[in-house]
Design a protein that fits this description.
Layout (H helix, E strand, L loop, with lengths): L1 H22 L2 E11 L5 E11 L3 H4 L13 H9 L2 E10 L4 H4 L9 E8 L5 H15 L34 E6 L6 H8 L16 H4 L4 E13 L5 E14 L10 E3 H5 L12 E7 L9 E4 L8 E5 H4 L9 E4 L13 E8 L5 E10 L6 E9 L3 E11 L2 E8 L8 E9 L3 E11 L15 E3 L3 E6 L17 E6 L3 E3 L8 H25 L13 H9 L1 H27 L1
Parallel strand pairs: 1-9
Antiparallel strand pairs: 1-2, 2-7, 3-4, 3-6, 4-5, 6-7, 8-12, 9-11, 10-12, 13-14, 14-19, 15-18, 15-21, 16-19, 17-18, 20-23, 21-22
Helix pairs in contact: 3-5
Amino acid sequence: MNLSKSCFLVAAVCLLLSLLRIEGKQSHTEELFLKHLPDGRVFAHFEFTTTWDVHPLLFVQPSNVHHYGLFPKSVSEVVSHYQVQEAHLSLTQGKWRTRVWGYPPDSTPPGAELWVWFLPNADAKQQWPGLVNALSGLLCAHLNVIGPTSTYRPLHSFRPKGPVIGNLSSSQLRYAAVPRETVCTENFTPWTKLLPCGTSAGLASLFSALQLYDTDFHSLALHFSPTCKGGDCSSVGVQLVQTLSVVFPPPINSQQYIEWSLKSLFSKSLSSSCPLSSSSRIVMDTSNLTSGLAFSIDPPRVEASGRAVYDIASLTGLSKKFDLKVKSLTQFVPEMPRPPLLHTQRLLKGSGHEWGGLVTEVYNNHRHTSVRVLYLDTIPWYFRVFIHTLSIQNATVSYQHYEPSKDRVRPHLLELLLTVPPLTTAIVSVMINRGFLKWTEHPPDAHHGFYVNSVVLTTVLEECPNCTQLSDNGTKGPYALRIHTEPLLISIATPDFSMPYNVICFVCTVIAIGFGSIFNLTTRKLVPDTKENKTGIFSRLTGFLTRGTKKEQEDSIESKEETDTNVEQSIENQ
């Protein structure tokens, strides 16, 4: 009996310890990064990080997780149900101008982009469709258009950002993009509900949809990945990073001075920090101010690293609000900044609706160093790619992988490893033929055109003067970069969707004329044409309407005649 009690107590203690270990510690931090761009615009980057000290293999088992404090339960359920190791989803409105603004903290193409690493024991092919639909419902995004014909499996691009769980195999990676996806408050509202404090406190209380969507660039993202606990990465947890990047128009007043504040940008000032956040701060980069202008910052808090750091918890309270004010001391004169060391653009050549070509230009502006670039191109299946016309100029190719498409089954995929010499422009071009689609395969606005995804470049630079460094300690290389080109909008042969309407009108007219004539001839009663029947329908209708008037006139005439007769008789009698 005592032995059974001892075993029960030991099992209970072990279970309690395992539950404590599985529950783990949860923490949340928030940060707002502000920076002046070379053309006078203001860049604002919000980053909300929620960390949970739970191993990813235990995290994906719903039976092991019983308590949700700061980590959103909706994200946890999606990740655990579909056996996700890493998931990165971005919704972007506008194009980031790399040649003028430099490199963003995280490059995203216009529209929606999703890339996911599944756990080694997961069936990626089976889990991918369900995950896409779940994320589509989570953020109210139009991701359900992603199917087998728009899903890609790169071999070397999109490496995991966090520590790798198990063996790394490209068969567990899935990538998709929807360039035509538009971003609006329907996506922004559910995104803010994933925050521990929502929009009621903390940096998220600055959010105003009217201000955020009246900007030159807007991008919100959701990143789930494993994370290391400690410098040696002896233990692994999970983290959810929510980012929002916004580029505001140049805040230039009538005297050509740059002047702005938090209240002018977001229409409100900051009243409190999130009580659930262990760190809440605002960081302004003052090291690369626009065109070398001198600025006055209120309140002044510039550190030796060239950054102004403000702790929101100590600057806000029950009765005080925080508002950062910045004003230039001299007038602003626009200048063209020095181009980044590596940038790219994409072009469409050809004319008509049948033949054409895709051209990508990669610029290496470094004076002495060659750059190795991993080139990824994803093309829909209805564009016929003639791979024998692939031309690579001014660059050396050390690796090439091409996966041809199958009609209505899978798209094209091209991966290249290029070495671009210094001060050289590499040109990658290929000829295409625009195919014909069935009339049921066209979108509702078929005449708008069809999008081709952005080319994705992945590289590592030893120096990067145009990079946006969010961390105080991240000023030394190497720098891992991912660069997107602009998507292409291509017109293809489109059927005349007004033809069904024209056919319906024509057929109905013919039937009305033909059937109507035959019906009249077979059902109308024919009578002899006599004098009594010569009166037409117009005369009959006129007579019917004026019948009462004629009768009144006849009655008046008769009464008048009787009156005259009576008068004559009275005269004779006299």
